[in-house]
């Protein structure tokens, strides 16, 4: 299967929709420019708005391998770039000693051969054969500042430096997507090397399209109820009652649960019974009271 020719923003929108990802024009423009300019794209936004899903969809559209680097506090360079297979190197050295080899310089060259190199996500992305890989650096804000500094060479030049080997440059330029939930501000040096897009919660029509595509078993009426209810949850004055509003992933999971329960019409009792799908924190589940559910389920007045 060959990748479609993404010669325009509209073509990209259609291609993403073809794999179940519904991007608005601003997001599609950011992705299109990242592809054309061969620049990393930094996506920031609340959890559950589709940042990670975009990288997954893009890999499908481009028919490229998706390589994921999941960031976390304490992530080390060796876990992101490479490490040596020390056990195999030690066996090689013992075997050489057994043969009476005394040339230490030659032995050092032998143990730092390619076959003893364990490639981690960054190096895998750089060495992926044409057309290249899609590298997802997920939740980069969870890593620490030294790790951000380590990423600069890769983000700016698509290369990394390995002391025992030298500089490794990209075989084919990877499509690189960084995501951040903005638990902390990223350094300006990282942002300067990337194109930037703030990914917000979707508008009603886009969320409705996502629910329709991801939950084909939902009736049109039920899909509309889900989109309307979750959209109002995120809006004022209701949003202030919750620590974290439901993301797109929660909307889809809620719709699937309602279908599994053979729900025809969403009512306050169903909302109460399934609140743990929309929210993942005890306080938010408790905040979604029956009275609030009644208000949320009231028809939205038509604009005059």
Automatic annotation (TrEMBL):
Cross-referenced InterPro entries: AAA+_ATPase, ATPase_dyneun-rel_AAA, CbbQ/NirQ/NorQ/GpvN, P-loop_NTPase
CDD domains given in the database record: AAA
SUPFAM superfamilies: P-loop containing nucleoside triphosphate hydrolases
Bilayer-spanning residue ranges: none
Molecular function as annotated in GO: ATP binding; ATP hydrolysis activity
The protein's name: ATPase
Organism: Acidovorax carolinensis
Taxonomic lineage of the native organism: Bacteria, Pseudomonadati, Pseudomonadota, Betaproteobacteria, Burkholderiales
């Amino acid at each position: 299967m060959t990748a479609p020719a993404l010669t325009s923003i509209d073509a990209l929108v259609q291609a993403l929709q073809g794999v179940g990802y519904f991007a608005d024009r601003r997001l599609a423009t950011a992705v299109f420019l990242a592809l054309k300019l061969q620049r990393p794209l930094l996506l920031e936004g609340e959890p559950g708005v589709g940042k990670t899903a975009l990288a997954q969809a893009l890999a499908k559209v481009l028919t490229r391998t998706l390589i994921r680097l999941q960031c976390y506090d304490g992530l080390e360079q060796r876990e992101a770039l490479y490490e040596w297979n020390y056990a195999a190197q030690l066996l090689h050295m013992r075997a050489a000693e057994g043969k009476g080899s005394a040339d230490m310089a030659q032995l050092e060259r032998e143990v730092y051969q390619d076959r003893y190199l364990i490639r981690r996500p960054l190096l895998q992305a750089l060495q992926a054969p044409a057309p290249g890989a899609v590298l997802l650096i997920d939740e980069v804000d969870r890593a620490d500042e030294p790790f951000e500094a380590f990423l600069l060479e890769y983000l700016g030049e698509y290369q990394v430096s390995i002391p025992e080997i030298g500089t490794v440059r990209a075989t084919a330029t990877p499509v690189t997507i960084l995501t951040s939930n903005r638990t902390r501000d990223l350094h300006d040096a990282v942002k300067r090397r990337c194109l930037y897009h703030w990914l917000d919660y979707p508008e009603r029509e886009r969320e409705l399209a996502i629910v329709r595509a991801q939950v084909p078993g939902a009736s049109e009426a039920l899909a509309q109820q889900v989109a309307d209810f979750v959209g109002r949850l995120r809006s004022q004055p209701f949003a202030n009652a919750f620590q974290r509003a439901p993301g797109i992933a929660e909307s889809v999971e809620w719709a699937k649960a309602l279908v599994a329960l053979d729900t025809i019409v969403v009512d306050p009792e169903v909302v109460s019974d399934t609140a743990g799908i929309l929210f993942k924190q005890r306080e938010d589940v408790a905040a979604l009271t029956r009275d609030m559910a009644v208000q949320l389920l009231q028809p939205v007045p038509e604009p005059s």
